[in-house]
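Ticket #334: bound-state structure for iron/sulfur cluster.
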Amino acid sequence: MNSAEVKQKAKDIGFELFGIAPIGPFPEAVFYPKWLESGYAGEMRYLERQKAGRMDPQSVLPGARSVIVCAMNYNTNRPLTGYDRLRAWVSRYAWGEDYHETLHEKLEELSRWIEEFSLHRTRTYVDTGPLLERVYAKYAGVGWFGKNTCIMHVFLGCILTDFELPYDTPVPDRCGTCTRCLEACPTGAIIEPYVLDSRKCISYTTIELRGDIPQADRPGIGHHLFGCDICQDVCPWNRKARYSANPAFQPKEGLFWPEIEKLLDFNEDEWRQLIRGTAMKRAKVKGLLRNLMVVAGNSGAPRLLPRLRKFLSHSDEQVRSHAEWAVNRLQDHD
Ligand code: SF4
Ligand code: SF4
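RESOLUTION: The complex was predicted; output attached.
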């Protein structure tokens, strides 16, 4: 088996981009512990726990030689138009089937095939294992991470293996003098090029943060119910990106600009139905309700007040306190 056969198999399985990287060390990895020490990971303590594995793949798979990086484009043809203040935003990556599952299945298939025909060992990762996926994507020639710290509109999965394969050429940085993402970030979370303070990022706040959303951060969340795409959507490189026709990544009904009033009327079962099978499960219904209170409070639409007031007696203390904030904010508009 050679690298061309591995790549052909990746293509046959349905990956659109793939490449092979050495396991490092890379200069970017030096940055990672410093980033953690600065507290920029916020409550994402699993990143600290996984530090050793992320820094040294040998500790995960002794004898590891290569990382096979595979990616799928999730950029669907849905322009940003359609916004009005009675609607909320769900990040594009969460519109379709949960990418963890979609990619995991495909990576497992590739992984089993490599093990069977090369007799080498493999470990697969989709955003869950201790690999610095974005660094490997760069060195595998799959994509570069921009000043917004993202690899553009693709889902990444990696296979760590002790199979030594020829490595691809890293992708050069294509940001140049552009600073659009830094300027467009509404919360100043990209504190300098290539450095994200997650604690300020709307994606972190609406998905990872389990506690109360700090009051000072709530207005900046705007209409973002789950995640934020601003720094990706303003990127000139993403404007040129192809659209994916993959049915798995097309928006599930109700997730493209959902109406706030409808969401405020949802019962628990309707919420569960809405997020079933999508990456939104991560925030849980309670977290989404907390976010919804903030989005409704930011809407500037006093007509939401009667619906919002119902949440002042919600069974969950966090939802109640965020509802109180939202009601007070909207009353100021009344
Ligand atoms: S996702 Fe949104 S809040 Fe986070 S860095 Fe990008 S623009 Fe800023
Ligand atoms: S918006 Fe500009 S600076 Fe930001 S990632 Fe894209 S090209 Fe790089």
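RESOLUTION NOTES: Strands lie at 17-22, 66-73, 89-90, 122-125, 154-161, 190-192, 195-196, 224-226.
TICKET STATUS: resolved
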